[in-house]
Design goal:
The chain is mainly alpha-helical. It contains 18 helices and no strands. The protein has a single domain, classed as MFS general substrate transporter like domains (Growth Hormone, Chain: A). Helix content is 75%, strand content 0%. It is globular and about 55 Å long.
């Protein structure tokens, strides 16, 4: 029982990792409130935590030498929760901007650990299942928080920021159920590596593999961030829904990804090394349906297709890292992939803005993301043919 509660508490750390865009349904109201600022300046209030997360991930390895795991996670959750709810009390642009930066720093403190703790503490089938559940937990948290933010929007747009108070609940779970130290176990050596032991030097192709994983993850996160930013504007532009209904569709996009996370092991056994490519192409199909949708039900169908495939593709990346690298290199490689994720998230306003300038309309961002994902899919197919060690895949025999 203790092992189960420990796993649940570790998984709960992922519930708020991608909550940056959970309040994106308030964008139309924020555009109106901050009418003296340009749309891109208002977009940045939503996306700016991604820059701070990126900075924190870059210094994460250095911080780990001076802060133990418990201090990093406790400090991160406190900073996340306190700064997250701050815009409720003041809507001054500068104040909100600073609070969003602090929110990103808080998420950045726990980001790498929430992923690497699983790879460090567990192995084999248990690790693979938990990585799938972690993706499901991340998706579930984002979906629930997005849905709650949409309901709070009915009261006032500032109340949507109250969702970040959930970080206090996660902090209690972590402090209560995750032991400060673990005894010797089958994963103890991975969990408590000696700092005197240098990680093995990776070959050039392993380094290139990590870079490709990071770029691919960045494109995928840019896709989900673009959906979060532009979906409310898309439905208002086409006139078949309002911000609250758009928030519900966003929740659907995120919620269905839980199915992919839970069934991930089964999907790998069925599709093998082709799962990533299949997921990317399916996600593109869903994006096209959403961009072309003329009604809320059709939009919802596109959200279901994209949500299922998007989570499967992301999980392929995070499960591929420990599948193809020595345990001592997993944390650093995971941090590199997370850097790619946050570069993708932080660049979203600029990419969507550029797309809108090239061709006006909220739907342009969806077509742009299709192009980015097709690039990843083509590269992965080429790598599978000429240099398989670079491609994103998981060997079912290693599960």
């Amino acid at each position: 029982m203790r092992n189960t509660t420990e796993k649940l508490a570790i998984l709960s750390l992922s519930l708020m990792l991608v909550s940056t865009y959970s309040i994106s349904a308030v964008l139309p109201s924020m555009f109106e409130y901050y009418s003296g600022y340009s749309p891109s300046q208002v977009d940045i209030l939503i996306s700016t935590p991604s820059f701070a997360i990126l900075v924190m991930i870059l210094v994460n390895t250095w911080l780990a030498r001076h802060m133990n795991e418990r201090l990093m996670i406790t400090g991160g959750l406190l900073l996340l929760s306190l700064s997250g709810v701050a815009p409720i009390f003041s809507q001054n642009y500068t104040f909100v901007f600073i609070s969003r930066i602090l929110l990103g720093l808080g998420i950045g403190l726990i980001n790498s650990k929430a992923v690497s703790m699983i790879s460090e503490r567990f192995t084999g089938n248990e690790r693979t299942a938990l990585l799938g559940y972690r993706s499901a937990a991340e998706t579930l948290g984002n979906a629930v928080l997005t849905f709650i933010a949409g309901r709070l929007l009915l009261i006032h747009w500032t109340q949507a920021f109250f969702i970040y108070a959930f970080g206090f609940v996660i902090l209690i779970l972590y402090l209560t159920f995750v032991p400060y130290k673990t005894g010797k176990s089958k994963t103890a050596s991975a969990y408590t590596p000696s700092h005197a032991d240098a990680p093995p030097v990776l070959s050039r192709y392993k380094v290139l593999m990590i870079l490709f994983y990071a770029v691919s993850a960045g494109f995928l996160i840019c896709t989900s961030s673009s959906i979060s930013l532009r979906l409310p504007l898309l439905v208002l532009e086409k006139g078949y829904a309002d911000e609250t209904q758009a928030s519900t569709v966003l929740g659907v996009f995120l919620m269905v990804g839980i199915i992919s996370g839970i069934l991930y092991r089964r999907l790998v056994s069925l599709a093998h090394e082709h799962l990533f490519l299949f997921s990317v192409l399916t996600c593109c199909a869903g994006l096209l349906v959403m961009a072309q949708a003329g009604s809320l039900p059709v939009l919802g169908i596109g959200a279901v297709i994209s949500g299922l495939a998007h989570t499967a593709a992301i999980t392929c990346i995070f499960n591929g890292v420990p599948s193809h690298l020595p345990a001592a290199n997993v944390h650093a490689a995971t941090s590199m992939v997370l850097i790619g994720c946050n570069l993708g998230a932080s660049s979203t306003p600029f990419i969507t803005g550029l797309a809108s300038r090239l061709h006006p309309g909220a739907g342009t961002a969806f077509y742009t993301c299709c192009g980015l994902l097709l690039i990843v899919g083509i590269l992965n197919t080429v790598f599978n043919k000429i240099k398989p060690e670079l491609a994103i895949s998981v060997n079912p025999e290693q599960l």
